[in-house]
Design a protein that fits this description.
Layout: H1 2-23, H2 32-50, H3 54-64, H4 72-84, H5 88-99, H6 106-122, H7 126-136, H8 143-156, H9 160-173, H10 179-195, H11 199-212, H12 217-229, H13 233-247, H14 255-264, H15 268-280, H16 285-298, H17 301-314, H18 318-329, H19 337-352, E1 357-359, E2 365-366, E3 382-384
Antiparallel strand pairs: 1-2, 1-3
Length: about 400
Amino acid sequence: MYEFVIIIALLLPVAWWTGFRNGKGVAKGKSIKDRLGFSKKYFVGLNYLLNEEADKAIDTFVSMLEVDSETVETHLALGNLFRRRGEVDRAIRIHQNLIARPSLSGRHRKMSLMELGYDYMAGGLLDRAENIFKELMLDQQHNQASLKQLLLIYQQTKDWQNAIKTSEKLQINASASLKSEIAHFYCELAEVRLYEHVPKEAISYVKKALSVDSGCARATLIRGDIEYSLSRYKQAIKAYRELIKQDVELLPEAITKINSSFNQLNDKKGLALFYQTAIAAGAGISCILNYAEEIQLTENDQAAAEYIVRKMSSHPSVKGLLKLIELHLKYASDSARPSLIMLQEVVSKLLDNKPIYHCHQCGFDSKTMFWQCPGCKNWGSVKPIQGIEGE
């Protein structure tokens, strides 16, 4: 309702001024019939407005507005308002009508094209929007805004090669570096090649990602996954070990393959040392519990439970509690067992209902890992949740 008021506030004075100007239309060769028709439309629009038929009122007033240098800004503002209200078709009609005017100045035409591009983006017509922004990127005034929109389009359509090219152009005059985003685009290409079983090309894209951003933990993680897929377990472990330095919070994403790599090499001591190093660097409960399992195998359940208790004194965790319950259930008395089983079920349900990942930019929570946050569209901002209910 508030936006309706704004639209009417824009239209009424402009429509009145146009009517006033046309009142002097005799000097300009306008017929009495033309002026009376215009006046009738104005009062029809007012009648719709008084009857609270705002949509019909807006359509009537818009049809009255002539496009000239005095009303172009009003048309652009109206189109913008319609787009914000979700009425994309109306916004498109207004901006297309502007562009079709041969008398429109070059500056106003480019402004109208930009708004039309935004309309197409809002309506999901990405191919049309792309054509407009490709044209406008050649104009210095609209270059940066057009490149930003093209980058959004290429990310939505997963056209990572063009996303990289556009980011590199955008970065020339951008105030902030886009190296992190470019590295993620190379990682997307690497994952596609890995999925298609073309590891050589996947490794090539990983190297490009790391050449752009040497701290890209995702690229290191993919490198480990590639080596693992090729059964090159020593090289996989080397990559995962590098992950400890780059971003230890991401280590849970590779834990299954880390365990498997060391087991394939029959290197139990190496696995224990790996977890000790990771835990000392700040790795979370997943690494702690995996190391506890190694203690359980090499020593006994009691030693594993004591290790978890020691760690939980400084690193409290619901996952750690669940593991402790599991260890104590083996030795629980008949009277204590039902209570422990009930507690185990409660803690399990608590974990099942909790998200695993959290975006540090917008707060988006999920049970699935996203390298680009679905909420704020930032790259690399989603990480495993830390703390008592997470890592």
